[in-house]
User: What shape does this take?
Amino acid sequence: MKDKSLTKPLPDEDLVDRARAGHLEAMDELVSRHHGSVYRVALGILRDEDGAADVAQETFLKAVRGLKGFRGDASFKTWLLAIAANEARGVLRKAGSRKELALDRIGPVPSAEASVDDTLERAEDVSRVRALLSELPEKQRQAVTLRIFEELSFREIGGIIGSSEGAARVNYHHGIRRLREMLG
Amino acid sequence: MKGPDCEIIRDLLPDFGAGSIAGEEGGMVEAHLGSCPDCRRELEVILALREARPEVPPEVEARIQARVREEMTRDRTAGAGEVPGETAGIIPILGRLRLIPVWAQSAAAVVILALGVSAIWNARDPDLVQDPTVVASQELLPEAWLWDDGMVAGAPVFDGLSDEDLEALLEEFEG
Assistant: This one.
């Protein structure tokens, strides 16, 4: 029988406790909440959609295997994203070089209500922004995407990209400044 | 009165753009944006970036959930009876014992019991636990005829004696 208490939005910590006890639905919910962030972190490093999906899956499998060792010093999301970033970097190291598919080649998802012109215009804007974003140095790009796409704090970003909180803030502001200059 | 400087506001702009700050802090950001074109421009860039956030292919979530469920179910089967949170000690071992057939568990219990009894028996005073049939085959010293409590050693000891030896022994008792 389905556990009705799961219909209420439980905090991640409670879901982690349940998942640790083998509760499949709790883990489903954690995947549902965080797979997008995990996928985007992997995509930002790999720049390959299939590779990002594989890394996202591997990230959750590693999380399940390591769940009993997760002590909650960082948030579950930050922990997951750090696993994803490490996993993606590992894939890159094995591949020896970056894949060809860049972020600017990933098509936008059109809104169901937008007109054709609006959709094309938005697609052009989105493509341009993604193209410029992909020109940033890696740490700046990661700091910008983690701050804006995932709404993480600089402290959390530092933990994921392997730098101090201050360095994460500096990377973010440098990245934004460059984007402002490039966007005109 | 001087308002908050641009550095503080720019740290908050991603949260403001996401609609996740409101109240006094949100009002402070709004007031600053009203008078600072530079920070307004930065907010525009942040909003353009938010628009460019890559979407996740719809099949990814279900694929991950299915694979994760498979992994968790396999773990649970392998660790049947495992108490959640226990990673070491005898509890996981007991859980795995349930996978062993009952006949094998029974056989193992008999062997363990036999070994245990043997170990306890051998741990006693070796002079008292020697097999009487072995004692009888050895050269008997006078003090070996009596146990510490004064009782004569058991029948197997006498079984090994010749008639002459037995008579000599009886004479010794009677004498």
In short: The mean pLDDT of chain B is 72. Chain B has ten helices and no strands.
